[in-house]
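REVIEWER CHECKLIST
Item 1: Sequence provided? yes
Item 2: Single chain? yes
Item 3: Sequence as submitted:
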Amino acid sequence: MKLQEIRAIARQRHISYDGLSKSELIRNIQRQDRKQWQEGVAAYKLGSYQKAFARFNPMAAKGDVDAQFFLGVMYFRGQGVEQDFRQSLKWYLRAAEQGDVQAQSRLGVMYGNGHGVPRDMVQAHRWYSLAALAGNEDARENRKLAERMMSREQIKEAQKLAGTWLSKRKFCARPLELSCEPI
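Item 4: Structure as written out by the authors:
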Protein backbone atom coordinates (compact mmCIF):
# COMPACT_ATOMS: atom_id res chain seq x y z
CA MET A 1 0.00 0.00 0.00
CA LYS A 2 1.32 3.44 -0.91
CA LEU A 3 1.93 6.16 1.66
CA GLN A 4 -0.74 8.35 0.03
CA GLU A 5 -3.33 5.60 0.47
CA ILE A 6 -2.36 5.12 4.11
CA ARG A 7 -2.59 8.87 4.72
CA ALA A 8 -6.07 8.87 3.18
CA ILE A 9 -7.13 6.18 5.66
CA ALA A 10 -5.61 8.23 8.50
CA ARG A 11 -7.53 11.35 7.38
CA GLN A 12 -10.80 9.39 7.33
CA ARG A 13 -10.13 8.24 10.88
CA HIS A 14 -8.95 11.66 12.10
CA ILE A 15 -5.43 10.41 12.85
CA SER A 16 -2.59 12.91 12.54
CA TYR A 17 0.16 11.76 10.19
CA ASP A 18 2.52 14.72 10.26
CA GLY A 19 6.12 13.62 10.63
CA LEU A 20 5.25 9.91 10.86
CA SER A 21 6.90 7.24 8.77
CA LYS A 22 4.77 4.79 6.83
CA SER A 23 5.22 2.03 9.42
CA GLU A 24 4.49 4.39 12.34
CA LEU A 25 1.31 5.55 10.64
CA ILE A 26 0.20 1.97 10.00
CA ARG A 27 0.77 1.15 13.67
CA ASN A 28 -1.33 4.16 14.75
CA ILE A 29 -4.17 3.04 12.50
CA GLN A 30 -3.91 -0.49 13.87
CA ARG A 31 -3.90 0.79 17.47
CA GLN A 32 -7.18 2.57 16.82
CA ASP A 33 -8.61 -0.61 15.33
CA ARG A 34 -7.32 -2.65 18.28
CA LYS A 35 -9.18 -0.40 20.75
CA GLN A 36 -12.39 -1.04 18.83
CA TRP A 37 -11.43 -4.73 18.69
CA GLN A 38 -10.85 -4.91 22.45
CA GLU A 39 -14.20 -3.23 23.10
CA GLY A 40 -15.86 -5.78 20.82
CA VAL A 41 -14.19 -8.75 22.52
CA ALA A 42 -15.13 -7.41 25.96
CA ALA A 43 -18.75 -6.98 24.89
CA TYR A 44 -18.78 -10.49 23.37
CA LYS A 45 -17.42 -12.04 26.58
CA LEU A 46 -20.16 -10.27 28.57
CA GLY A 47 -22.81 -11.62 26.20
CA SER A 48 -23.53 -8.16 24.77
CA TYR A 49 -23.57 -9.58 21.26
CA GLN A 50 -25.24 -6.64 19.55
CA LYS A 51 -22.62 -4.27 20.96
CA ALA A 52 -19.87 -6.67 19.88
CA PHE A 53 -21.39 -6.89 16.42
CA ALA A 54 -21.50 -3.08 16.20
CA ARG A 55 -17.74 -2.98 16.95
CA PHE A 56 -16.70 -5.86 14.67
CA ASN A 57 -18.86 -5.09 11.63
CA PRO A 58 -17.10 -1.88 10.44
CA MET A 59 -13.71 -3.44 11.10
CA ALA A 60 -14.63 -6.54 9.10
CA ALA A 61 -15.89 -4.43 6.21
CA LYS A 62 -12.47 -2.73 6.12
CA GLY A 63 -10.72 -6.10 5.88
CA ASP A 64 -9.80 -6.86 9.50
CA VAL A 65 -9.33 -10.63 9.47
CA ASP A 66 -10.06 -11.10 13.19
CA ALA A 67 -13.32 -9.18 12.97
CA GLN A 68 -14.29 -11.13 9.85
CA PHE A 69 -13.76 -14.39 11.71
CA PHE A 70 -15.83 -13.19 14.68
CA LEU A 71 -18.70 -12.15 12.39
CA GLY A 72 -18.57 -15.64 10.90
CA VAL A 73 -18.92 -17.10 14.38
CA MET A 74 -21.72 -14.72 15.36
CA TYR A 75 -23.76 -15.42 12.23
CA PHE A 76 -23.17 -19.15 12.58
CA ARG A 77 -24.40 -19.15 16.19
CA GLY A 78 -27.01 -16.41 15.86
CA GLN A 79 -25.33 -14.19 18.45
CA GLY A 80 -26.45 -10.56 18.17
CA VAL A 81 -27.85 -11.32 14.73
CA GLU A 82 -30.24 -13.87 13.31
CA GLN A 83 -28.51 -17.14 12.54
CA ASP A 84 -27.52 -16.99 8.89
CA PHE A 85 -25.20 -19.64 7.50
CA ARG A 86 -24.74 -17.77 4.22
CA GLN A 87 -23.50 -14.66 6.03
CA SER A 88 -21.32 -16.86 8.23
CA LEU A 89 -19.85 -18.47 5.12
CA LYS A 90 -19.23 -15.05 3.56
CA TRP A 91 -17.23 -13.80 6.56
CA TYR A 92 -15.36 -17.07 7.07
CA LEU A 93 -14.37 -17.01 3.39
CA ARG A 94 -13.04 -13.47 3.66
CA ALA A 95 -10.97 -14.38 6.72
CA ALA A 96 -9.82 -17.68 5.21
CA GLU A 97 -8.68 -15.98 2.02
CA GLN A 98 -6.39 -13.86 4.20
CA GLY A 99 -4.93 -17.01 5.73
CA ASP A 100 -6.95 -17.25 8.95
CA VAL A 101 -6.50 -20.88 10.03
CA GLN A 102 -9.59 -21.03 12.27
CA ALA A 103 -11.77 -19.69 9.47
CA GLN A 104 -10.32 -22.27 7.07
CA SER A 105 -11.15 -25.05 9.52
CA ARG A 106 -14.68 -23.69 10.06
CA LEU A 107 -15.20 -23.60 6.29
CA GLY A 108 -14.28 -27.28 6.23
CA VAL A 109 -17.01 -27.90 8.80
CA MET A 110 -19.56 -25.85 6.86
CA TYR A 111 -18.85 -27.63 3.56
CA GLY A 112 -18.61 -31.02 5.24
CA ASN A 113 -21.98 -30.62 6.94
CA GLY A 114 -23.76 -28.56 4.29
CA HIS A 115 -24.31 -25.47 6.47
CA GLY A 116 -25.28 -22.67 4.09
CA VAL A 117 -23.92 -24.55 1.08
CA PRO A 118 -24.57 -27.89 -0.56
CA ARG A 119 -22.49 -30.57 1.15
CA ASP A 120 -19.16 -30.74 -0.70
CA MET A 121 -16.49 -33.04 0.68
CA VAL A 122 -13.91 -31.84 -1.88
CA GLN A 123 -14.24 -28.25 -0.60
CA ALA A 124 -14.32 -29.47 3.01
CA HIS A 125 -11.07 -31.40 2.46
CA ARG A 126 -9.50 -28.41 0.71
CA TRP A 127 -10.14 -26.09 3.65
CA TYR A 128 -9.22 -28.71 6.24
CA SER A 129 -5.96 -29.30 4.37
CA LEU A 130 -5.03 -25.62 4.38
CA ALA A 131 -5.76 -25.32 8.11
CA ALA A 132 -3.92 -28.58 8.83
CA LEU A 133 -0.85 -27.35 6.95
CA ALA A 134 -0.78 -24.39 9.32
CA GLY A 135 -0.84 -26.74 12.31
CA ASN A 136 -4.53 -26.93 13.22
CA GLU A 137 -4.96 -30.37 14.81
CA ASP A 138 -8.78 -30.36 14.63
CA ALA A 139 -8.57 -29.73 10.90
CA ARG A 140 -6.08 -32.58 10.52
CA GLU A 141 -8.47 -34.98 12.28
CA ASN A 142 -11.49 -33.70 10.37
CA ARG A 143 -9.61 -34.14 7.10
CA LYS A 144 -9.03 -37.80 7.98
CA LEU A 145 -12.75 -38.22 8.66
CA ALA A 146 -13.61 -36.51 5.38
CA GLU A 147 -11.26 -38.82 3.46
CA ARG A 148 -13.27 -41.83 4.65
CA MET A 149 -16.21 -40.49 2.65
CA MET A 150 -14.25 -39.57 -0.47
CA SER A 151 -12.91 -41.36 -3.52
CA ARG A 152 -9.22 -41.14 -4.43
CA GLU A 153 -10.14 -38.82 -7.30
CA GLN A 154 -11.98 -36.48 -4.95
CA ILE A 155 -9.02 -36.39 -2.55
CA LYS A 156 -6.66 -35.59 -5.42
CA GLU A 157 -9.00 -32.81 -6.61
CA ALA A 158 -9.13 -31.33 -3.09
CA GLN A 159 -5.33 -31.49 -2.79
CA LYS A 160 -4.98 -29.78 -6.14
CA LEU A 161 -7.37 -27.00 -5.05
CA ALA A 162 -5.43 -26.48 -1.83
CA GLY A 163 -2.13 -26.43 -3.72
CA THR A 164 -3.43 -23.91 -6.22
CA TRP A 165 -4.69 -21.71 -3.40
CA LEU A 166 -1.30 -21.80 -1.69
CA SER A 167 0.62 -21.09 -4.88
CA LYS A 168 -1.37 -17.89 -5.49
CA ARG A 169 -0.87 -16.41 -2.05
CA LYS A 170 1.86 -14.63 -0.24
CA PHE A 171 1.57 -14.29 3.49
CA CYS A 172 2.42 -11.03 5.16
CA ALA A 173 3.84 -10.48 8.58
CA ARG A 174 1.28 -8.82 10.81
CA PRO A 175 1.06 -6.25 12.33
CA LEU A 176 3.14 -4.12 9.95
CA GLU A 177 0.98 -4.82 6.92
CA LEU A 178 -2.60 -3.63 6.63
CA SER A 179 -3.60 -6.43 4.31
CA CYS A 180 -2.39 -9.51 2.54
CA GLU A 181 -2.93 -9.61 -1.18
CA PRO A 182 -2.75 -12.38 -3.77
CA ILE A 183 0.50 -12.55 -5.70
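Item 5: Key structural point noted by reviewer: The first helix runs from residue 3 to 12.
Item 6: Recommendation: ____
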